[in-house]
Amino acid sequence: MKTEFISDKDPLGSKTLETIAKASRFNKWMYSEIKPFLKGDILEIGSGIGNISQYVIADGLHITLSDFNDEYYQWLKERFSGLPAVQDILQIDLLHPDFQKKYSFLCERFDTVFLLNVIEHIEDDITAVKNCKFLMKQNGHLILLAPAYNWLYCRFDRELGHYRRYTLDSMKHILRSNELYIHSGNYFNGIGIIGWLLWGKIMKRKMIGNKEMSAFNRFVSIARVVDKITAKKTGLSVISKSIKK
After folding, report:
1. Which of 16, 75, 97, 156 has a 20 to 30 A CA-CA distance from 216?
2. CB crowding 19-35: b at 16 or more within 10 Å, else e
3. Burial of 4: CB neighbours in 10 Å, binned 0-12, 13-18, 19+
4. 74 CB contacts (<8 Å, ≥6 apart)?
5. Is the Cβ–Cβ distance between 190 and 223 less than 8 Å?
6. How confident is the model at residue 204 (pLDDT cuts 50, 70, 90)?
7. Across the strands, what pairs with 84?
8. What is the pTM of this model?
9. Three-class DSSP category at 14
10. How far is it, in rounded angstroms, from Cα 124 to Cα 23?
């Protein structure tokens, strides 16, 4: 199984994913935040290089992986094809002008759809969520995780192609616009705000470095305690969980 990836089309994005891939404690923590809401046939949109996919697969849950980027799509096929838990590996464009016709074979196919650090890359997020809803069964679950707070927007975000950052209220707006029932929402990784302010806003770094991510990975247990103390009322990311009624 391949473990390293370099993208010609998205060098900064792929380097960032590789850096985060080495932070196993952080990735497991993120996965633990969404795992209780996963059910049935699962679709991950924007799987990237499989940083979170690998944990879903290890748990034996039925998952379809996807990425719109050609290089990530090929990488996912090379890394994960043939594994029993992987139902399919697809390319999905959430802003395709004729989405329902293009992806008619996926209509109401999935019990869970999740997007982790993806929706902020999509200019028309309301249409993107509308098309996610098209893929979901009745009572299906939609999980979104995205960067929090526009006041934290910095060079990191610009370089990674982020259109925006979110609050719970702004994320709820795109869900309500698509008549999805909001099950729950919270912030994630409160202590991460300090690092983002330091490296992103103050030092204006271009990307997250290996040393910084490695250091944070060692302190994940403390970060988890901080989130418990703050009751997840603030964080570097925001998570929403909604249901198609």
Report:
1. 75
2. bbbebeebbebbbebbe
3. exposed
4. none
5. yes
6. confident
7. none
8. 0.93
9. helix
10. 31
